[in-house]
Each structure stands twice: as C-alpha cells, then as structure tokens.
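Key result, reporting period 2: structure in, sequence out.
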C-alpha cells in the first residue's frame, strides 16, 4: 500500500461507480446500487476504496404511518460545484433498482465538502414527463449556469440550465440536444459499473486514502537508550508503531533481559519483541452480542447464548482479556429464575454507574413481541460470577413511572456517563398498529436508579440507508466509545445474517446529546462482510479499554457463510481524524518482520523518579 507521505503528485483521479448485485447474501441490490469510489495516479489503474463497498446511499422515504420505503440509486455522476465543493446527481430507484414513480422526471442531488460526508439535498425537477435513464452535469463559467444533460427512457436527450443547483430552484424547460457519452473507463474491480472520473487534489486524495483504506504497520521505533534499575522499569519502555496513513500506536515490548546484570551498573544491549495479543477468532462459538467489562481488577465476558436458544446468560472471569477466551463459564441468569423473564434473554452489557456494577439486558416473559429492556444490579460487595449476588432484573421505566414502551419491543439498551449526566440509548420497534422497524432512541436516566428515565426519549436514528434496511428495517445494538474530543456511537443494522453491519454516529463531547442535530450519521457503514475476509455479518459490538490504554472491540460475526453467530475481538485503531477503525487485522496492526527491536539499557543503582530518560529514537 502506498504511504500517504509518498503521494507527491499534484493531482490524482477519482472514479465513481456502482456495482452489479451478486446475490442477497454477499452483495444485494440495496448495497450494489450505491455510489462507490476508486482512485488512481494515472487514470488507468484504479483501486477501489472502502473494500469496494458503497460510500453514498439514497435515503428511504417516509410514509404517514411511520413506515419507510427503501430507495437505491443508479447512474451517479460526480462533479464540481461552482464553489469548488462536490455535487452528485443520481437516478433514484426503488430498492431493487427498478423505476421509482416518485422520481419520474427528476434526479437526486447530493452535496459534499470532502467526498466522505454527503448531504441529500432532494429531487431536482427536470420538467420531463418521462423517467431519466442517464445524467451528467457541469458548471459553465461563461454562462454562470449549471448545464444538466439527461437521457429519458424513450432514448431522447435533453438539456436543462439553472443558476443555482438546488431542489427549490426552478430549472429551465428541457431542450432537446445531441446525445452525450461518458469517457470510457476500464478498471479491474469486481462487479464494477463505471461512471465518470474527476481530477482531485493531492490533499483530497490523501484524505480519501486515509479514511477509506485500512492502514498497515510499516515502521517501528524504540528509544535508542533507556535507564533502568530493574526489569520492572523496562515495562515503561514502549515501541511506537507507525502506519501507512501516518497514524501511530504505542505497544508493549517483551524484552530479553538475560544479559543484564542488575547488580552491576553499566550499559547493556538487549533485544525484544513487540508484544501483540493474539486472538484466534472466533473466541466463543454460538455467542452473540458480546460485551467485556472491567470491574475491581478483573475482566468479565458476557454474551447472548445462541447455544440454548437464548435462555441463559453466562459470565467468564479472568485477570486479563486473553485469558477470557478459555475461562470457565458460570451461569448467572436463566429463564427459570424469574417469572417475568421466562422467555428470551438477549444482549447483556456491563455498565458501571456511579461506582455500581449493572447488567443491562433484554428479556421477555414469553414471546419475542414482548421483549423489553431490563437492568439488574450487583449487590454491595457482590461477586459478579455468583448468581445470588445479583438483584432481580427490573424493567426500564419512563419518567412518569410507566413501562418504557407498550406498542412493541425495546432491547439492546446501552448506558454511559458524561459529566453529571447518565444516558441510555436503545433500540425500539413499534409493532402496533404497523411494524415501523427498529429505531434508536436516547434519554437521560437517574444515576441512582439507571432503569428510570428522567427525560422523554428522543429519536436518534432510523434505518434509512440501504445497508441498514437490507432484508429488514433495523438499527440496533448501540454502544459508545469516547475519546478526548468525540463520543462515538456504533450500532448494528439490517438482518442478523451475513448482511449484518456496523454504522456510526458521532458527536462532540461538549454538545447537547439530547439534540439529534448534535449527532452526525455516516452515510456508509464502517464494518461489513467485505471488511475482513471470512467474517460475515459483523455487528452488535462493544468496547473495553485495558490497563495499557488499548481499546478492544468485541463483536459477533459468522466466521463462514451459514456458520453460527460467534464472538470475535480486535484492537480498535484510530484514523487520521481520530475515528475508530474496526477492520485493522493483526497482520496489518503489526508487521511481524519489524517486531524484533533493540535498545541499550543504562543500569543505574537506583530506580529513577518520574519519567524514564529516552534519547534519540531509531528506526528498526
């Protein structure tokens, strides 16, 4: 992979395209009929971005009863707006790619400042009485107008003009014109239906590559010399891993100290290996919706139990995350313990609220359509692996004391603290009078009783993109990840088969999180069946930070088509904007050929106070 630092041309080329649908399992029409991007240095050797997956999807339209009509897009055309930002015109279709009656005579407009975030502006009326079958557009500086050219489904070609490309601005009447063709593009990309190419600046190309390609470790640096008085001091000596996108990661080193005489002052050359915890995925078969928590110096693993059709919850306990893989499973809850939880037990999560440990989970007295969010608290001084140390799970209540929801189900409730506030986010699905699909809601809860809302619920997200409503309209499985600037909320979408996927919402830490406008939803998913070979339908993930500050992503996937939902774990990297990267596999995280490192240890007669003294770094 080309390093961003090696991108020295002034300009590069960007191709937009759609793909041919493969099948409902691997690449359904709702995924294929979206805009994809590929880049090139020479306008010939185009390489797909984002795992050859769509980056721009048409939004579903709303019905008066709250249901939605899934939409797709075809024939996207990428061009520059007059202010130097970007526009995309596309033909909106039904989800399966067939003609959309509501788009007859119109084309869909998107705008973007960076080719990563897109705003769907709406339909532009071209004043035609027929369906549009092809589209092109450019801004003519001499006329100071946008020239829109299109072909209709009768084979005729037309041209419109407008000074302001906006759905609210009226275009000129269509005028018949000569046929237009797009420059032919040949690219060795699976399933490609190529459209047009634009020239982009080096900086834009660098940014697209930094966001839409998985980085790879290409350099390791360690201090050339350090001071230590015992082996324990060497644990503070870290390696810095550098990646092709310019990002870094701090890593522990397993040093060979056999050559050091700790009783004799001097300088000793030593060798070490950059440490990497290895996880052979899956780490737990028939375990879905996994969550790892830290509590009183221990790590705990819990998940939905598909092995017994979701009728029990088991916990694993260990001193570190790798040891959770083979730790004993201990049952803490099943459907025989409480009458109000005699049915399905789903999606358990550990959460610490004001120093108390809770498990948020979903349960039902019987059938699926009565599934509701519950919370159970660990008793004072209790042991998490002892069932009797957990209080009875209680159903989540609204601020007026009534149950959270009665016209459908609630599930996958997650919880987080920010400042003085405690928030919950959950999935809610209306069944009566119509099935609206699963939507995400947020509310504040009582810090002392986090199963009681203290605000009204606020809608955060609906499954309005094709990747979120593929086979079923579902946004669910939310979980937060905080950095020093942002709060990220990942969530799972679509059916829980091989097409399951992970989407992303984000907000600034200082924003009003109860205001939906504070949250930005990415147009494309950040983890799919195309992200990591052999992992299908990844989703419903959670995060834990270990004692070294490393963030881990626990998720479930099907490790083979038709295989059971099973749990996996992978380190979370952070990209050039500080956003989570969930598809950095172990081989890309650490180049094994660079893992052996060297330094010199200056053995002193006493332990140093404060920070170690590090001298010039060397490239290994």
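The corresponding designed sequence is given below.
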């Amino acid at each position: 992979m080309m390093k961003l630092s090696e991108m020295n041309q002034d300009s590069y080329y960007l191709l937009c395209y759609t793909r041919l649908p493969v099948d409902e399992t691997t690449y359904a029409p709702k995924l294929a009929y979206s805009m994809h991007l590929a880049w090139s240095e020479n306008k010939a050797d185009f390489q797909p971005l984002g795992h050859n997956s769509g980056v721009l999807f048409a939004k579903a339209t709303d019905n008066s009863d709250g249901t939605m009509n899934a939409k797709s897009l075809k024939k996207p055309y990428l061009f520059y707006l007059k202010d130097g930002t970007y526009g995309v015109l596309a033909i909106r279709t039904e989800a399966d790619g067939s003609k959309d009656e509501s788009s007859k005579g119109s084309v869909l407009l998107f705008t973007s400042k960076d080719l990563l975030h897109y705003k769907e502006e709406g339909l532009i009326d071209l004043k035609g009485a027929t369906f549009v079958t092809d589209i092109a557009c450019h801004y003519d500086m001499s006329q100071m107008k946008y020239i829109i050219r299109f072909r209709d489904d009768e084979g005729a070609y037309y041209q419109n003009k407008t000074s302001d490309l906006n759905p609210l601005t009226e275009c000129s009447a269509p005028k018949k014109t000569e046929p237009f063709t797009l420059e032919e593009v040949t690219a060795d990309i699976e399933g490609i239906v190529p459209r047009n190419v634009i020239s982009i600046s080096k900086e834009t190309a660098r940014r697209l590559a930094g966001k839409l390609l998985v980085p790879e470790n290409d350099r390791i640096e360690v201090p050339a010399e350090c001071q230590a008085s015992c082996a324990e001091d060497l644990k503070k000596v870290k390696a810095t891993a550098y990646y092709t996108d310019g990002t870094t990661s701090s890593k522990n080193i397993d040093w060979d100290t056999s050559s050091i005489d700790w009783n004799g002052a001097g300088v000793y050359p030593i060798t070490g290996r950059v440490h990497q915890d290895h996880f052979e995925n899956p780490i737990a078969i028939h375990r879905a919706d996994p969550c790892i928590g830290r509590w009183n110096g221990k790590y705990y693993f819990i998940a939905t139990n598909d092995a017994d059709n979701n009728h029990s919850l088991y916990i694993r306990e260990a001193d570190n995350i790798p040891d959770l893989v083979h730790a004993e499973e201990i049952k803490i809850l099943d459907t025989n313990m409480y009458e109000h939880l005699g049915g399905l037990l789903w999606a358990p999560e550990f959460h610490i609220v004001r120093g108390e440990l809770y498990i948020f989970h979903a349960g039902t007295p019987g059938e699926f359509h009565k599934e509701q969010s519950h919370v159970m608290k660990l008793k004072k001084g209790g042991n998490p692996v002892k069932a009797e140390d957990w209080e009875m799970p209680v159903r989540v209540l609204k601020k007026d004391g009534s149950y959270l929801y009665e016209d459908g189900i609630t599930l996958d409730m997650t919880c987080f603290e920010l400042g003085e506030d405690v928030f919950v986010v959950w999935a809610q699905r209306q069944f009566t009078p119509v099935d609206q699909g699963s939507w995400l809601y947020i509310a504040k809860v009582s810090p002392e009783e986090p199963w009681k809302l203290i605000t009204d619920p606020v809608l955060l997200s609906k499954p309005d993109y094709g990747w979120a409503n593929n086979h079923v309209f579902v946004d669910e499985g939310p979980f937060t990840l905080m950095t020093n600037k942002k709060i990220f909320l990942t969530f799972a979408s679509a059916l829980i088969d091989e097409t399951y996927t992970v989407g992303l919402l984000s907000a600034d830490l200082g924003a009003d999180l109860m205001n939906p406008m504070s949250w930005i939803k990415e147009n494309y998913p950040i983890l799919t069946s195309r992200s990591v070979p052999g992992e299908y339908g990844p989703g419903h993930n959670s995060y834990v930070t270990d004692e070294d500050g490393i963030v881990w992503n626990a998720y479930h996937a099907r490790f083979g088509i038709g295989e059971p939902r099973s749990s996996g774990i992978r380190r979370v990297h952070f990209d050039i904007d500080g956003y989570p990267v969930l598809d950095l596999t172990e081989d890309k995280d650490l180049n094994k050929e660079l893992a052996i490192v060297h330094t010199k240890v200056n053995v002193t007669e006493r332990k140093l106070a404060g920070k170690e003294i590090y001298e010039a770094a060397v490239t290994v």
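Confidence is low (pLDDT under 50) at residues 607-620. The longest strand covers residues 408-418. This case is discussed further under Risks and Mitigation.
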